[in-house]
Amino acid sequence: MASTMNKAVKVVVFAGNHFCGPVIEMLVQQQLLAGVVLPQEPNAFTSQLAQALAQSQLPMMQFDPLQISALHNTINSWEANIGLSFGFEGQLNGLLAQMSASNSVDMFAYQTGEAKFAGDYSIYWQVRQQVKATSARWLKLTLQQPSAVYQMANEVDFNIHPMDTTGCVENALLQQIAGFCYQFLHLFSQGSLDLAPAFNQDVQRLSLKDDDLRVDWRSMNGEQICALARAGNPHFGGCVITINNTDINLQQASVVDYPTYGVDAGMICATSESDGVIVATLDGAIALDILSNVDGLFSGARFCERFGIHAGMAFK
Asked: What is the reported pTM?
């Protein structure tokens, strides 16, 4: 990928999640990386990233909301003229205010999906709500008016297969993101970004709580439970079901045509090698295909056989 930038571009990456990984690699190859800002609270990805940056002797620093001036000065010393944010937007308000005074860096945030899915768990909620297609786009956070949001007109669309897990969708995006970012930076260097005011400027960022991962047999139908398992796979071990006051991770489930004879949702109708584990739902039945606990990963039938779960028992 040969560089075709019309004007100098030096990028500071705010590395809040793993989507920035391929982009940092591309920026290093293209000699466009000014430095990397790591979040205040490290996670598994950012800890590994910090080690890799240190080994490659690439500039980095940790974000500290109490030291915004120092961060601003460091970014200026890196001579960055564009910032790319990955899952960092909620922490940047103070920095944007500092930058607006000098107008030194244009800040852009990478987003996936519609505005209603904004947040660090965007793809999770799209898979869970059975969205059939998603997109990748950039939102510009203007420095003069930090609350105003502008949307880049061109987007990259991705179909979400009915059997896709969150990991499947993320991997599809990761394969495309570096090229998409390079195209974006090329347009920026030419001064030809096509931006328009976004319709939803006050976007509520979706969070994810422990209770969100639990199956509620009283309110969820079969498709919703299956989607809940896919959305939590692989990052959260699928979803959580409870029997005999013991939590079990449901990694994969399938809607099946099986007679339940009107039993309550959550009741186990059958456990066998041929049928698997069949559980009644509000609108029919599902098969629990893959289950796991601290002992490992099991097929539904093997799990029930090993841990003494049988037809007639019910999940809470």
From this structure: 0.85
